[in-house]
C-alpha cells in the first residue's frame, strides 16, 4: 500500500505542496491531533473565502470532504486540459510553444501522479519538440512510455531505431500472417480470391492503418519503415513486403500527407499503377504515363529503380501486368500482329521484368533495368499465340460437318521449347502460368491437360508457389465435373500435384484444400487412392494434419450404406461446350 500511496503523491514535495507523508509526520509529532488536522485543512484546502461558510453545509449533508475536493479537482483538470489544447492553437507560434514549455517545466515533476498525468501528457502531445531530457525520462520508464501520446512517441522513435523496430515488428509479422491465411483459406472460389479486394479496401486493413498512424507526417519514421521492409524482403524473399510498401505509400496519399508523398520519388508511379490494379488492366493512357516515369529516371538517380522494382514486385502489380499481357496477346491474334510490333506489350514485359528483378537489384545494389531476352518476344510469346490459334482452329473444326474424315483430335503435344522456357526464363514462366490460369478459367479442359505436364518443373518452382496454387485451385472449381474422369484426375493429381507434395508442405495443403471443396465430384476409387497418398507423415506440420482430419471426417460422412452400393452409378457427363476427343 505504501508504494501505491507514494505514487499518488509523486512529485508534490518538489513543488512545496504538502502530501500524505507530511500529514503523517505532523500527526505523529503533535499533542492535539484534531487541532493539527484542522490547521492542515486550512493551509492546504481550497483558498476561497466564500467557501469557508459553505463547507460545514456540505458536512451536514454527509458529503465527505474527499468527494468534494475530488469533484473540484476533476472539474479543474478538465478546464486545464481544454486550456492546454486551446493554447496550442492560439497566438504566434513561438509564444504558444513558450507557454506550453513553461507549463511542462512546472508540471513535469508530477508526471507519475495518476491524477495529474493526463495534463502533463496533454502538454507534451501539443509540443512539436519536447525537451530531450524529458523524452529520455519518459523513455526510461515503461509505464510513462506506454501512457504517452503517439505524437510524443514519434519524437522518441525518430532517434531510436531499435525501439521503433520493436513496435513495428509485431505488426509486420501480423501482416504476413494475414496474407498467408487468405492464400490458404478454406473458401475456394473463382469469384472471391486473393486478388479480389480493391486497393482502397486493402489499405483499410489494421496493420496499414496502425503504421500510417505511427508515422504521422514524419519522413524519418517513414524512411525507417521502408528500410525495415527492404531488409525483410531481402532476408525472406517474401513478396508481401512489397505489397505493404505500396499500400503504406498509398495510405499516406489517401490522407493527403504531402510532407511524405512529395519526397517519395515513387509516389506518382505508384499512384498511377494503383489505378491500373483497381481496374485489373493497364490501359493505353496509363501505360504511356508509367512509361514516362521509367524513361524519366535521370543519370545519378538510378537508385529509384530499386524502389520502383519493389513496387512492381507487389503480387497485385504482377497480377495486373500478367492479366494485361494475356489480354494483349489475344488481341494480337485477332489483329494478325506479332508481339515485337506492339509497344504496349513491350512496356508490360519491361515492367514485369523490373518487378521480377527486384530482389536481385536490391541485393546487388546494381540499379539498372534488367535486359529483356529477345527470344521471349520473338519465340515464347508467338508460341503462346499459336496455342490460342490451336483452340480457335479446333473449335471451328468441331463445327464443320465430318462425313469424309473422323473428328480432328485436339493437339496433345507441347513444343519442347515451351517447357524449356518455363524452366529457364522467369518472365516466360510467369506469363505461361497466367496463360494456364486463363484457359482453366475458360473451362478449356483440352488446353489445360495439354500444358499441365510443363508445370512439373518450372523456374524456381513457380508453379508450386502459393499465389499460383491459390488461383489454380479456385479456377479448377469451374472444371468440377471433370473430376469424375479417371484420366483428368490422373493428369492433375499424379501428374502434377503429387510430384511435389512430399517435398513441399504448401502443395500438400493446397491439394487438401481442393479436395475438401470437390471431394464429392471425384470418382470413389480415385478418392480412396488420393486419401492414402495424402496421408500426413511425421514431418507434416499442424496445418496439413488439421486439413487431412477435416477431409477424413467429410469422407466418413459420405460412405454409402450397403443398400446404395448395388445401384449402377450414373455417368457424369463432361461439359457440353468442350467435346471430349475420342482418340489422343
From TrEMBL:
GO biological process: negative regulation of transcription elongation by RNA polymerase II
Positions of region (Disordered): 558-584
Superkingdom per UniProt: Eukaryota
Gene Ontology cellular component terms for the protein in this record: NELF complex
Pfam families given in the database record: COBRA1
Protein name: NELFB factor
Amino acid at each position: 500500500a505504501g508504494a501505491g500511496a507514494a505514487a499518488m503523491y509523486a512529485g508534490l514535495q518538489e513543488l512545496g505542496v504538502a502530501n500524505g507523508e507530511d500529514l503523517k509526520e505532523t500527526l505523529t509529532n503533535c499533542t492535539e491531533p484534531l487541532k493539527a488536522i484542522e490547521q492542515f485543512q486550512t493551509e492546504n484546502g481550497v483558498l476561497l473565502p466564500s467557501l469557508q461558510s459553505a463547507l460545514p453545509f456540505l458536512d451536514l449533508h454527509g458529503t465527505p470532504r474527499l468527494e468534494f475536493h475530488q469533484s473540484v479537482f476533476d472539474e479543474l483538470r478538465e478546464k486545464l486540459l481544454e486550456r492546454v489544447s486551446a493554447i496550442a492553437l492560439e497566438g504566434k507560434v513561438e509564444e504558444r510553444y513558450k507557454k506550453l514549455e513553461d507549463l511542462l517545466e512546472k508540471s513535469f515533476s508530477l508526471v507519475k501522479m495518476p491524477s495529474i498525468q493526463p495534463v502533463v501528457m496533454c502538454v507534451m502531445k501539443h509540443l512539436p519538440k519536447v525537451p530531450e531530457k524529458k523524452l529520455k525520462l519518459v523513455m526510461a520508464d515503461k509505464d510513462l512510455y506506454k501512457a504517452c501520446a503517439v505524437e510524443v512517441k514519434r519524437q522518441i522513435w525518430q532517434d531510436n531505431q531499435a525501439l521503433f523496430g520493436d513496435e513495428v515488428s509485431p505488426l509486420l509479422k501480423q501482416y504476413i500472417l494475414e496474407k498467408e491465411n487468405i492464400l490458404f483459406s478454406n473458401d475456394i472460389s473463382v469469384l472471391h480470391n486473393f486478388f479480389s479486394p480493391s486497393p482502397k479496401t486493402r489499405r483499410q486493413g489494421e496493420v496499414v492503418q496502425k503504421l500510417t498512424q505511427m508515422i504521422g507526417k514524419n519522413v524519418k519514421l517513414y524512411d525507417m519503415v521502408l528500410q525495415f521492409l527492404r531488409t525483410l524482403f531481402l532476408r525472406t524473399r517474401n513478396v508481401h513486403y512489397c505489397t505493404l510498401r505500396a499500400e503504406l505509400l498509398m495510405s499516406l496519399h489517401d490522407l493527403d500527407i504531402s510532407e511524405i508523398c512529395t519526397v517519395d520519388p515513387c509516389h506518382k508511379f505508384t499512384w498511377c499503377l494503383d489505378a491500373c490494379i483497381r481496374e485489373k488492366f493497364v490501359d493505353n493512357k496509363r501505360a504511356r504515363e508509367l512509361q514516362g516515369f521509367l524513361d524519366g529516371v535521370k543519370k545519378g538517380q538510378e537508385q529509384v529503380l530499386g524502389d520502383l522494382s519493389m513496387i512492381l514486385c507487389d503480387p497485385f502489380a504482377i497480377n495486373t501486368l500478367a492479366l494485361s499481357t494475356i489480354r494483349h496477346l489475344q488481341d494480337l491474334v485477332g489483329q494478325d500482329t506479332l508481339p515485337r510490333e506492339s509497344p504496349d506489350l513491350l512496356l508490360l514485359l519491361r515492367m514485369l521484368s523490373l518487378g521480377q528483378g527486384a530482389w536481385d537489384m536490391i541485393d546487388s545494389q546494381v540499379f539498372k533495368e534488367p535486359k529483356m531476352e529477345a527470344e521471349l518476344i520473338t519465340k515464347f510469346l508467338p508460341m503462346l499465340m499459336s496455342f490460342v490459334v490451336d483452340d480457335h482452329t479446333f473449335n471451328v473444326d468441331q463445327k464443320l460437318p465430318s462425313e469424309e474424315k473422323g473428328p480432328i483430335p485436339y493437339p496433345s503435344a507441347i513444343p519442347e521449347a515451351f517447357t524449356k522456357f518455363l524452366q529457364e526464363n522467369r518472365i516466360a514462366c510467369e506469363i505461361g502460368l497466367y496463360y494456364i490460369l486463363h484457359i482453366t478459367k475458360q473451362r478449356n479442359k483440352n488446353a489445360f491437360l495439354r500444358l499441365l505436364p510443363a508445370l512439373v518443373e518450372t523456374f524456381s518452382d513457380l508453379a508450386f508457389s502459393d499465389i499460383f496454387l491459390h488461383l489454380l485451385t479456385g479456377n479448377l472449381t469451374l472444371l468440377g465435373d471433370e473430376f469424375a474422369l479417371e484420366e483428368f484426375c490422373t493428369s492433375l493429381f499424379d501428374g502434377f500435384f503429387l510430384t511435389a507434395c512430399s517435398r513441399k508442405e504448401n502443395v500438400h495443403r493446397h491439394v487438401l484444400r481442393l479436395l475438401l471443396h470437390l471431394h464429392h465430384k471425384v470418382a470413389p476409387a480415385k478418392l480412396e487412392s488420393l486419401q492414402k497418398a495424402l496421408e500426413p507423415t511425421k514431418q507434416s506440420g499442424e496445418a496439413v494434419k488439421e486439413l487431412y482430419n477435416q477431409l477424413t471426417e467429410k469422407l466418413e460422412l459420405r460412405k454409402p450404406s450397403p443398400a446404395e452400393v448395388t445401384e449402377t452409378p450414373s455417368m457424369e457427363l463432361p461439359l457440353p461446350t468442350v467435346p471430349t476427343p475420342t482418340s489422343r
